[in-house]
Amino acid sequence: MKVEKFKNARYENKIIKYFLISVALIYIILILIVPIISVFLKAFENGLKPYFDAITDEYTLKALKLTLLTIVITVPINTIFGIVAAFAIAKFEFKGKSLLLSILDLPFAVSPVIAGLIFVLLFSTNHGYLGEFLNENNIKIIFAPPGIIIATLFVTMPFVAKELIPLMESLGNNEEEAATILGASGWKTFLKVTLPNIKWGLFYGIILSTSRAAGEFGAVSVVSGHIRGLTNTIPLHIEVLYNEYQYNAAFSVASILTIIAVVNLIIKNISEWKVKDLNKVKN
What we know:
The protein is an all-alpha fold.
């Protein structure tokens, strides 16, 4: 009797398992896979020539250049900040630690549009708190690339730190302490011990930060001014094309971001597996 009940329970568990898996797969296909395929179908709807004309257009290339410039500046800055913040939080106890953790979550809690408005309030030359100083020194931040970079810095700030903090906490301090006892300097200990242990988590955080920097719309839209050829990043350029009813061109340019997202997703999963393997070895 007990054996029969056990078999029935296993059978019911299998039904539930496959039902849940099926629901998850259907949801992923409808919400993720179908839209991605639709982007490429629409992009190549009129053939290869219109597609390449759209992605090699003068304004598209300028938008791509600004997007890449933003990534090249913001990602290294937030990577350095993320390493420093994670090291401080994971390795030391100090007053204000919980406050620092809360601040790291701020970009997740605040709407990107609100973040953009905050920077307009600070740096606008017309009514910003620092407007008089900026005017006197002929510095333009809002409706210029510096504003886009600052807004992107804000929204991408937490990613590296949030990935490294739990990893560093799980690794502990034993290896660093052993290296210090053996006479290694702090910098050498970091390069030879800490960095190799966190490299995949660091890489994972950089990928997430890069993805967000490339695709950020809300905060950048507020501070950019939508000046075509000057302050439009790729997401803003796609919006302009779509609003002008250039649907094929809009989806063609959107395919660039889609390809970047898919590549980042693959790299993200590889780095995530490496982090899990590292945790298993350490445990």
